[in-house]
Every structure is written in structure tokens, then in C-alpha cells.
Design brief:
366 residues; alpha/beta; Purple Acid Phosphatase, chain A, domain 2; five-stranded mixed sheet; 13 helices; 21% strand; globular
């Protein structure tokens, strides 16, 4: 154990730096062009690449999860610690009649073959089947499960996995109209245009042949916020910039594993609330917020310079593979969007609303 801890301390940083050195960084122009192309294609030719769903007409309650990275239940399986919370969440949302949208990287097919993932994840697949039985399951592919989009045997494997045919999309557009104003909520995994992930063969090779064995031996989970590098933050910024330039559009992605609501991370929102508490001289709120900020800064410490002036156009689900077992997602229900977290307390999983806003309020600030 001592040797493992020693190697963990000295090897983690250089291995991550090596991956970033030889992989392409996210490129703003590529990201923006890829998002525009996909959005316009779905908008004008809905069907193959994505669906357009009128959520007013359906009165549909929706839960969006992304980045499960289901694996083999061993040390390098990032989903294993979070499975309990995911199953509890799906049980709740199925009982409440929600539609489930899995926004990419559901299966970790860079590190594991599909048969291994199928073998060790019967519980989560069975839970998702309950939504499929109600015609309330939509799967979007990401870079780690792009197999579903480009393999000739994907259809047969989806049939074997779910017992029914499942269509795979690259994006979804949810349309919402309130008080005569129409808003598009554009959902996609978010790897589009990212040179590290969007069709990069080196990344796939590095994860499968170098990182996965090393991660297994060193018992590392790079999805804990402590391992998030600057490229993820930069990619979030590119996503925000694209969404802020669109008309009457909200963008929801995954991919970076960093929860974002109204274009702000949770830490940025805490700083905003702290400024308000100081203006109001609310000493109790100040103390509570400072304590929460100190805790969150242990997880991630990046704060955008202009976070107080961002348009509320960008949202990120976070992920379902945090190393402590927590999962985050975004609910859309009755004209309201909510960033939620499921966390295990003792033996039970508990749902917490982290942030919320009505779509009508968001649309007024676009």
C-alpha cells in the first residue's frame, strides 16, 4: 500500500501532463463550428442526428444525466462508487413519471469492451429499461461511447442490452414557449470540436493502453474535481461563449464533469451570494457562505473573471462518477430547470436541489 501511495503521488501529475501535451487542446473555432452545424441540422432536419421535442405540448418532466462511464466494477471503474445513487435516482424518477435523457458517455468503451460493460452493469441497464418500456428513454452518444454511433453492430448490441431497439442521437432540442416567447434548450454531450475527444485516436489509445492500467493499479479516479485540468474549464468557456451568441437558446452539455448552472459553477454562485450577503450586512449568511466556499475550494478553485456578468445560457449536468459516489444532473419540470445532486447519507440516497430557475426568468435575461 505504501508503494502504491508513493507512486500515486509522483506519477499522477506527469501522466496527466503527458496526455495533455500529446493531445490537442479544445479549439474555440472548432467547438463553435461543430455546435452550430449540429444545432442547425437538428433544427432543419430532425430525425437521424437528433429530435425536436415540444415540452409544452407533452408536459414532460425530464431528468438529464451524463458521464456515467459504466465499467467492470474493479478499481478503474469510475461508475462503481456512484451506482447506488444512480439506481436510487432512477427509481425515484421512474415512479414520478420523468423522461430519462442520458447525455453521452454512459458506457466507458475506451477502457473496457462492450461485453465487459454489459456483464457487470445489469442493474443500471435494467433500471433504464423501465423508462424504455414507457417510451421515456433517450440516449445521446459521447466520445467515450461513440461506438453507439459508428459501429455497424451497435444496433444489434443495443437490442441485446435493452431487449428493444434504441435509437442513438447526437443531440436533442427541447422547445418551450411561454408568454408568446419560444426558447430552444439544446442538449448534446459537448465533446464536439474538442481535439482531445472528438475523433482523436491518440486519446483513445492513451486511455486504453496507458491510463486504464495505471489508474487501476494506483486506484485513481480522475473524475474527482481535484484532477480537473484547465482544458475542461476552457471547454466550458467555449461552450458558454457559443451559447451566449445564439438567439433564444439555452445549451445543456456534459463532458467536462463540472456542474454549471446559469453559466456559473457552484463556487462562482457562492461568491455571488457572498457579495450580496456583505451588501446586506447579513453576518450569519456571510459565515455560512464562507464555510461553504472554503469546502468547495478544496474540490475546484477556478473562478471566471467575469462571472458576475455572464448571460444565463449555459448549463452542464456534471457527472455520475464522482469519486465520493455523488451524482449530479439537471431536471426540467413544469417550466423550471434545476441542478440536482444525489448523495448517500448512511444507507439511503438523498436528492438535493443545488440551483433552480424558471425558463421564463432565464428567457428574460438572454
Amino acid at each position: 500500500m505504501g508503494i502504491r501511495k508513493f507512486l500515486q503521488r509522483i506519477l499522477t501529475k506527469p501522466v496527466l501532463e503527458l496526455a495533455n501535451k500529446y493531445s490537442s487542446k479544445p479549439d474555440k473555432q472548432r467547438v463553435h463550428e461543430a455546435l452550430s452545424k449540429l444545432y442547425q441540422h437538428i433544427k432543419t432536419k430532425p430525425g437521424k442526428k437528433g429530435l425536436v421535442i415540444n415540452i409544452n405540448a407533452a408536459h414532460q418532466k425530464i431528468i438529464i444525466f451524463s458521464d456515467l462511464h459504466k465499467g467492470n466494477k474493479k478499481r478503474s471503474d469510475d461508475f462503481a462508487p456512484a451506482e447506488h445513487n444512480y439506481l436510487a435516482a432512477l427509481d425515484y424518477y421512474n415512479r414520478e413519471g420523468y423522461m430519462l435523457i442520458v447525455l453521452g458517455d454512459s458506457e466507458e468503451l475506451w477502457k473496457f469492451n462492450l461485453f465487459t460493460v454489459q456483464k457487470h452493469n445489469h442493474s443500471s441497464f435494467d433500471a433504464e429499461k423501465k423508462f424504455l418500456a414507457r417510451k421515456a428513454l433517450i440516449k445521446v452518444f459521447g466520445n467515450h461511447d461513440i461506438f453507439w454511433n459508428n459501429d455497424p453492430f451497435a444496433g444489434a448490441q443495443l437490442l441485446a442490452t435493452y431487449g428493444k431497439g434504441v435509437k442513438i442521437y447526437e443531440g436533442i432540442i427541447l422547445t418551450h414557449t411561454e408568454k408568446g416567447k419560444a426558447i430552444d434548450i439544446f442538449l448534446t454531450h459537448g465533446h464536439q470540436g474538442d481535439g482531445q475527444s472528438d475523433g482523436n485516436k491518440f486519446s483513445a489509445w492513451f486511455v486504453a493502453k496507458v491510463w486504464a492500467p495505471l489508474q487501476s493499479y494506483l486506484e485513481l479516479n480522475i473524475n474527482t474535481p481535484a484532477f480537473n485540468d484547465i482544458h475542461k474549464t476552457e471547454h466550458n468557456q467555449f461552450m458558454y461563449e457559443w451559447s451566449s451568441q445564439q438567439e433564444n437558446l439555452l445549451l445543456v452539455t456534459g463532458h467536462t464533469h463540472q456542474p454549471v448552472f446559469e453559466s456559473m459553477t457552484h463556487l462562482e454562485r457562492l461568491y455571488k451570494l457572498l457579495l450580496l450577503a456583505r451588501r446586506q450586512n447579513d453576518t450569519a449568511a456571510i459565515a455560512k457562505l464562507q464555510e461553504e466556499i472554503a469546502f468547495r475550494r478544496q474540490e475546484y478553485n477556478h473562478v471566471s473573471e467575469d462571472y458576475l456578468h455572464l448571460k444565463p445560457t449555459y448549463f452542464n449536468t456534471g457527472c455520475c462518477c464522482f469519486s465520493d459516489g455523488d451524482i449530479t444532473g439537471i431536471e426540467i419540470d413544469n417550466g423550471e430547470m434545476r441542478l440536482i445532486k444525489w448523495k448517500q447519507n448512511d444507507t439511503a440516497s438523498q436528492r438535493t436541489v443545488l440551483e433552480k430557475s424558471t425558463i421564463d426568468t432565464l428567457s428574460k435575461n438572454l
